[in-house]
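quick one, 539 residues, struct below
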Amino acid sequence: MKPEELSKPAEQLVDLNPQNFATLPPPYENFKETPLSPLTDDQKNRWEHSLDGVSCLTLPKPQTPEEEEKLVAAFLSGLQKLMTKENNWTFLQPLMLSLEYCAKCQTCAEACPVFEASGHKDIYRPTFRADVLRKIAKKYLSPGGQILAGFRGHDIELNWDLVARLAELAYRCTLCRRCTSVCPVGVDNGLITHELRKLFSQELGIAAQEIHEKGSVKHLKFGSSTGMTTAAIGDIIEYLEDDIEEKTGKRIKIPLNKKGAEILLVHNAGEFMSWPENPMAFAILFDAAGIDYTISTDLVGYDAVNYGLWYDDVQFARVALKHLEIARDLGVQKIVIGECGHAHKALSVIADRLLPGEQMIPRESSYTLLWDIVKSGKIKFDPSKNDFPVTLHDPCNAVRLMGIVKPQREVLKAITPPGRFREMTPHGVENYCCGGGSGFAIMSSGNFTDWKIKLSGRKKLQQILGAFQGEMDPEVKKMVCAPCSNCKGQIRDLLETYEVFEKTGIWYTGLVEMMVNAMVDQEKPFLEWPGDEEDDDDM
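---
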């Protein structure tokens, strides 16, 4: 498919048939995938869906030609701003270089988990949306562009069909930047996608509701997108302390708003709600290691997620400034980022680019701190407590963007028996995204859930199953260690949708939970498997 086709009238440009998607390893080699859930007739009448039959944005169809023209004009105006230093001083240079120097070699396509999983649909090539943007810019923003368009190969029409499809297409990329890591000239198609999302958000008010209304807006209003308020977080911490005492027999106090602590520990708030064992494990481990830390109950301070990272620099800056302000007010020496890959990227990388240097304080990944704890010898571990096959999922933003590859592996090797840890293929910086990146893990509008599970997460499911080939007996429990809350959400949905635990015995957890499970002083198993509660009831 050529980029010009995005502007052509059509009920649906691309048909998605899961039977043509990448095949899965045993025991799913003959698995008959069901079709993606179709939109209802009412939804089709109300929402734009003509790209691939999927609606992520639930984008309302304009009611008049005048409304269409207004939106198209706003898009073109936004594109002009995107390409000026005054309006895009943070990312203009890498954006322009990426638009200018792509060699069209398609090395990136073979690295893209979405393109690969789809059965090589052209619209999912990393270069495709970049080519659309490139052609529009050269035709409509360069001198004589419209006159010379046919000669330059930029004969593309800027109309509402194209704008609507491009908006949806900006949300068919996980921003994992695997494409960027293999590009021979360093073209960043992930950045181009991000800049498209920013344009749509800031100029047309178009964004996925889960990351805007339910994300950024709710985060700044209540303190977390979970709706967990500053008052509620204190109550939840008390519950966690009770649960810790039940699991360890020790009353461990989780320090809140402690002035002058060495570390401000920030979690993804989703951990408190969905995986409370993760902040509990951090509390147990930090207490045993004698680490001087605190958790903030201030607005935004207890939720390390920054939804603006995925779509809007303005929203990003509002949250990042608040995180840094809280750390300075508490007088901590540094911020330690819990098991959340996107929070790593937001606070450790993008904040440095968007915010002035005087706003900064040191920030550290929990992965490196956890490895320091192991190396210090302050805590004794018994690897036999983790005597089951385990593999490691590498969060894209920590590994590929920040280069944190070794610490989490060294921790796993130290807390598991020899031969139990095995790598996925590929792994490290070449690892595939979980399929839930760029906000996908929390997006469920329209019929997008089907797309993100059956297509976006397919390469990750391939990897997980591949890591345990030859050990698929469901009676043999196996673990995927995923040190990222967002990744855990996507992996959970993958495993549950395909009934992976029931069929193969594969489940998931975080890194710090496995560390606590292996502590010599931990008498009861800390890790839980599906069905454990039922077993306890039977006793």
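The radius of gyration is 24 Å.
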